[in-house]
Amino acid sequence: MTKGLKIVTIGGGSSYTPELMEGFIDRYQELPVKEFWLVDIEAGKEKLDIVGNMAKRMVKAAGIDCEVHLTLDRREALKDADFVTTQLRVGLLDARIQDERIPLSHGMIGQETNGAGGIFKALRTVPVILDIVEDMKELCPDAWLINFTNPAGMVTEAVLRYGKWDKIIGLCNIPVNAVVEEAKLLGRDTRDLFFHFAGLNHLHWHTVKDNRGNDLTAELVDVMYGQKGTDSIVANIKDNEYLLEQIKHLGMMPCPYHQYYYMTDKMLKEELADFEVNGTRAEKVKRIEHELFELYKDPALDYKPQQLAERGGARYSEAACEIINAIYNDKRRVMTVSTRNNGTITDLPDDVAVEVTCMITGAGPVPFQFGSFPPQERGLLQLMKAMELLTVEAAVTGDKGTLLQAFTMNPLILSGYAAKEVMEELLAAHKEYLPNFYRN
Ligand code: G6P
């Protein structure tokens, strides 16, 4: 008889937790989660209690043998864990509001994972995740860390490079959504298609082939962008609108986040217009969260409410629970995750984190070889990887020169005095979450 699994979720008070719970309940027969520990910090206690009690009701309604524990004591939770998932947000949504507002006030894209905002999210998050990794080394050295915390690619990079912890998988719902939605657009069954993704988190390209090896990518580009663009595959980005000539020349499908790089003027204009009416995306998310938590408070609610689909992370449980399932049961499922390159993309060094299509085995992800990109993708890929490496280094060292170098390289940040001004404003706004920059 198996002892059953212990899963620990850090940032357990997140509004996404019911997604995870639903995923584990649906898979209970093959993935017997006996202990589900939700961990949060003092500032997140109220949310942890609300969503944690909702998780308990879900388990009860499902009639499965699983204990849900709520705690603020991370170390108690981590002891002997099998899998640790991270979905925390350092500084909560208020910090994201600053990440989005400050660059926007200087006429630059303000976004959760891109541009100056994305860099600062990494600076706040990396030290906390590295701390968790240190606890894991001591308390659950055999566990896998499944990270959903953004920026997921840079967090994976930091854990591999500075945490020296190999059992990390960075995951994101974008590839999961793309597979499902694009198969629908092609009028095909996902099981008859092979989607091959390669690149970085929120900056990957992909091709799609049928089960006879026929390349359907050009057809997909036409269906998706030929008219005037379809709705985006994620709720937090409005539509997928590209210049058809350019996108056809790519030879691969872009991801929704490429709009920030390929259509910067359009994205900035839309962001500014949206800001006038709704505030930033983070402010909107705060309102959606408030509604969600009001629903979660209802003692009669014991299932995931529809409204959760308004958040960009829909199908997250598909990714998180399925990866854990694939590792635990050695299912050899094909999924796209952030992992170490190891020669998969020959345009990048072996030791960096990349987001690529892999077979998920009992020993972790085994990437499908990709090879080299043509110049139109390669240039942006290498630039962004260099930018990520500098950002992660700055997060660990607290060195402003390194940070300014990352700012200068990022295509969404105006270089020079403007870069320095935005950097200084963000450093001041996030002072309490950046101990490495304010050591004395
Ligand atoms: C997408 C991304 C996630 C991101 C989310 C933001 O799904 O893949 O990495 O966290 O959107 O959604 P939100 O509702 O917070 O704006």
From TrEMBL:
CDD domains: GH4_P_beta_glucosidase. Substrate binds at residues 96, 150. One of its GO terms (biological process) is carbohydrate metabolic process. Its cofactor is NAD(+). It holds the Pfam family Glyco_hydro_4C. It comes from the Bacteria. Its EC number is 3.2.1.86. Mn(2+) binds at residues 172, 202. Keywords: Carbohydrate metabolism, Cobalt, Glycosidase, Hydrolase, Iron, Manganese, Metal-binding, NAD, Nickel. The keyword Cell wall biogenesis/degradation does not apply. Residues 197-413 form the Glycosyl hydrolase family 4 C-terminal domain. One of its GO terms (molecular function) is oxidoreductase activity, acting on the CH-OH group of donors, NAD or NADP as acceptor. InterPro entries: GlycHydrolase_4_CS (IPR019802), Glyco_hydro_4 (IPR001088), Glyco_hydro_4_C (IPR022616), Lactate_DH/Glyco_Ohase_4_C (IPR015955), NAD(P)-bd_dom_sf (IPR036291). The record marks 112 as: Increases basicity of active site Tyr. Binds 1 NAD(+) per subunit. Belongs to the glycosyl hydrolase 4 family. This is 6-phospho-beta-glucosidase. It comes from Vagococcus acidifermentans.
